[in-house]
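I'd like us to work through together how a protein chain folds, taking it slowly. To get us started, please write out a protein record for me. Go ahead whenever you are ready, and we will take it from there:
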Amino acid sequence: MPLRDHVPVMTEPFFFAPATALTVAEIVALTGAEPSPGLPLDRSIRDVATLDEAGPSDLAFLDNPRYADALPHTRAGACLVAPRFVAAAAEGQPLLVTRDPHRAFVAVTRALYPAALRPASLFGAQGVSPGAIVHPQARLESGAVIDPGAVVGPGAEIGSGTVIGPTAVIGPGVRIGRDCAIGAGSTLTHTLVGDRVIIHPGCRIGQDGFGFVMGPGGHLKVPQLRRVIIQNDVEIGAGTTIDRGGTRDTVIGEGTKIDNLVQIGHNVQIGRHCVIVAQSGISGSTVLEDYVVLGARAGTNNHVVIGEGAQVAALSGVNSDIPRGERWGGAPAKPAKAWMRELRAINRLAQSRPGGDKSSGSNDERD
């Protein structure tokens, strides 16, 4: 059998193929978009693309004025646009008008590419692969997939439809629900995982929290006695670490999305549907209530509470509690309006002294 029947060859740069095609009428039903006059509802859409790369069987979208100049020139078979961009289109262009083009575009992409929503076995395996090590006391439901090199410890439980990637380690007593994906090289110990959870490669979950009583004679290690609990529909990015609790469980709430390279300390409580962006660090016993957003490289001190719906700007350092619904930024973080006032004041001060301070007696050339 030719190689191309097994894996993509070098001339084929794509790893996902559309599972189906959709007519414009089906896209309208899926998104609620309003088709422009004359747009054939039986037109077949087979793929998605950007405005500049789309062809006659592709769907594109526009919701950012930065790309509005490309709209009249696109060759897309259909284009999702916000109402404010309709006037920028060329006459007769195949438009689908909707208040939120990006969300509609994603809905169509999900329908065309369902396989891209959750990692599959990297070995194309079914059941337990040769080379996997599964302890006799582990319990696997029918339909669980264990890739080569993975290790499943005694008393571990893995639900139907869950994929354990190559060289992943599932420790003793760990429970993983159904339709999950555990990425290659990840380790899970002292952890309970719900259904439809995605853990990307290289994550470390359930290891000791960083707890020591410091003293002149050395640092006394504090036993970390509790668990990590990851609720349903959580997604955790590659290289993220989540420490198990010391005196209470570390909890990641339902639907929360965590980016790559995030550190979450022991006893942390994260609510439902939070978003935590790359390289953020959450110190021990911090509480994030529901729908909190942390920008990239944000950090929190121990024991702070960030209220429901609050947002923290990138690079911010949170040293005190944040009330619900507020937007904070800076280091140390403060309400966004106060932070902006400070930045403007610093900028005005800098602009008022364009040549630097010559009255201090310093010599700029030698400094």
Remarks:
- The two ends are 71 Å apart (CA to CA).
- Residues 358-367 have pLDDT under 50 and may be disordered.
- The first helix runs from residue 24 to 31.
